Amino acid sequence: MSARGTGETTTAERRAAGAEPGGGPLWRLLNGQTNIDFVGRSRLWLWVVVASAAVCLGALAARGVNFNLDFTGGTAFTVSGATRPFTSAGIGDALGEIGVRDTKVQVVDDGRGALVSTPALDEIGGQQQRAVVARLSEVTGASAEQIDVSAVGPRWGAQITRQALRGLVVFLVLIGVYISLRFDWRMAAAALVTLLHDILVTVGVYALVGFEVSPASVIAFLTILGYSLYDTVVVFDRVTEDTQRLSSVSTVTYGQSANRALNEVLVRSLSTSATSVLPVGSLLFIGVNLLGADTLQDLALALFVGMAVGTYSSIIVATPFLVWLKEKEPRYAELKQRLAVRRGGPGRGGGRRR
Amino acid sequence: MGKGRLVALLVASVTVVGALWAAIGALGLTPQLGLDLQGGVSITMLPAPGQGPVDQGVLDQTVAIIRQRVDALGVAEPDIARQGDTVLVQLPGIADQQQAEEVIGRTAQLQFRPVLEVIPPGSPGYAEAGPACEALTEAVPPPEQEVVLCERTPAQPAPGAPPGQTEDLPRGQWSKLRLGPVALGGTDVGDARAQVDPQSGLNWSVALDLSDEGAAKFAQITGQLACNPQGAPQRQLAIVLDGVVESAPQMAPEVVCNQGIAGGQAVITTGGGEAEAKELALVLRTGALPIQLEFAESKSVSPTLGRSSLQAGLLAGAIGLVLVAAYLVLLYRGLGVAAVAELAMFGATVYGVIILLGEVAGFALTLAGIAGVIVSIGIAADSSIIYRERYRDELRAGRTVRTAGDHAYRRAFRTNLTGNTVSFMAAAILYFLAVGPVRGFAFTLGLSTLIDTLLFMTFTRALFGLITRSPKLGRSRVMGLRAGVAAGTASR
């Protein structure tokens, strides 16, 4: 059954199994019967990827990433239970009087609370910080106990950034080794290229939209790496299984076989994305509507963006790139050439446009 | 695997999880909550720059002293830990962030030094002598050398101000003192306590009981100073705390030259109120930190905010689970219901293990940890999806329901293992390389991945295996075992 993988044979198989042939697009999708030529459109995907990467790099260069207070250092005061009416300008002026400038004030919870952030104060827990709490309590009528202070020194951001980068490097190396052992080095290379693409696009979206990057977003970025790889690995697992049947007398190229595998796991890819995005979406929804659940919100936002990117990249980046690498291998190159000759022209499907 | 063994596997896995929950119910356990969920103060500290590389042993000693200080504050279940160079202090439920910051972060290096020269502000050479007083650091002045330090100078109390507390003058108006080498230090202090000034009954100060060795040193230095003429600056003894001269009292006229003050008692007047005196006594009693730490981060969360975060996290998790369950049922019908059972089993196991770990290993669930669990819902659902998709593939390839189920298990398990290995590696690396909230997230993510694979091998396998072995369920259209494949034949 080495020919399993072309559309015709599968239909025949299905008939043999007593199934109804055809059906609508949804039916075909749910039954792994779609035949979308992902691999054959590599050139298109290449343009899409290059264009999106260029936009992301441009956004990064032009706007940079908007790091929040945890990276730049600063102090955030969360006021709850305010008993007096106040305005954000009023708070800004009151703090200006005691020499604290460049404050950002946000009135929340129908005027019962406020989020106030200041640049790094003289010293964490120092006199200036106490003066700010006293002033806020005066203006809003909230007691000092109702003002949560969250202060971050300027060195802390550098520290966590360094740790995140170190984690990233170790992770990439280990993953590369693992995939090389479990599959082969070409798959490791394709998976890592996909990963870099995912990181670039996610960070690019952050730069483009101007979302704030917090430590929670960094957690989420790191998770996305795991997710993106997980997704890629599941697809590669199927590609490996299908292409193992290829021999020098096969009637399909590596690219066509890989494309078949992609179609077979398409419903899984989409379902998995749906089941992953549903909980993250509810996290995002709840996080946005709750004061102080910034961690939840930041996490969910980055996950949301990253998962979306991770899903399509495992299809349009990982596998076409893998096919490109694989068809450089002599045995798959010969197979492709032989099939092209037999069909009296350039190979169809996977081979045609490359 | 035979039907009997599948039943055994199913019963065993359900029994284990059931026993876990029975134990939780019987003991009335609840998950240990992290600071962000129950409220409290969290302080992160790093060694201040400019001290050179910090010895790990010294850091451990530092952590031990901080622990003593926190214990003296009377916080229930504090968590003080060191990760690399970072010192993390978690104080659940404590309301007073300021007090915590003062007690924990203070280096509390106490030095007694003879005064050599007083340089009042505005006098010639004031600007050149030593560092500017505005740029005060807590750095410990080198004990063996002469140093120039600034003396805390209280302002004249405003009329009508409450007695006992005075504001300091701006630092630019403080006097500078040239001081000799350290005569005795914090290690010579046996005990320290806050007291009300016996004369005025208003001002608070800290009384020190010196150790025997300290008492001898104290008698010697005060004896030396007393040889200087009355009113001379050289008759003053400076009490230096963290690089600031707190006070520099003159030797009283009755102190005899070369005899000094016996009895080993000294008093530090602070100018602050009761709270400040008590905190100072506490940090002096527990000893100085061997290195100077700097606050990297200090956060407080009110218990109300913590509770609402917990509710939000759990609500988001529950909504996520329900949505995913609905999706699975829609996609797979009866097999989807089985997938929901797998998901429920997954949720029960993860939550149960988290409660258990909180009890046994002190694992505290944080908001980031809840996020880790929520993310893992996707991973758990994916395992069910992979299994079902594989099953449909095998069925389409012409296998019977039973053999398709068995083949699908082997293939899907391999995929599950490969994918989960990658996720687990990511979580493990995050856990070991990161600090703070990231670790909580990585821990629950890694744990969930592990549980997912374990359940796949046991509960999921047994449940799916038994369904495909049941002739009745195999024919049922609601179950959807032959969905897509048999649909055509059945309608014809």
Walk me through this protein's architecture.
- The complex is a heterodimer of chains A (354) and B (492).
- With 354 residues, chain A is an alpha+beta fold.
- In chain A, 65% of the residues lie in helices and 8% in strands.
- In chain A, strands 3-4-2-5 form a 4-stranded antiparallel beta sheet. A two-stranded parallel ribbon of chain A has the order 1-6.
- Chain A is elongated.
- By secondary structure, chain B is an alpha+beta fold.
- In chain B, strands 4-6-5-11-10 form a 5-stranded mixed β-barrel. In chain B, strands 2-3-1-13 form a 4-stranded antiparallel beta sheet.
- The C terminus of chain B is likely disordered.
- The interface between A and B is large, with 86 and 86 residues.
- β5 of chain A pairs antiparallel with β13 of chain B.
On the 0-100 scale, what is the average pLDDT of chain A? 76
| First-residue to last-residue Cα separation of chain A | 27 Å
**Tally of DSSP helical segments of chain B:** 12
Question: What structural class do you assign from the helix and strand content of chain A?
Answer: alpha+beta
- Strand tally of chain B: 13
Helix content of chain B: 40-55%
Are there runs of chain A of 5+ residues with pLDDT below 50, and where? 1-21, 347-354
Rg of chain A, please? 27 Å
Task: Provide mean pLDDT of chain B, rounded.
Answer: 82
User: Helical region count of chain A?
Assistant: 13
Oligomer: heterodimer
Name the chain pair with the biggest interface and residue counts per chain: A-B, 86 and 86 residues
The low-pLDDT segments of chain B are: 486-492
Helix-strand makeup class of chain B: alpha+beta
The H-and-E topology of chain B, N to C, reads as HHEHEEHEEEEEEHEEEHEHHHHHH
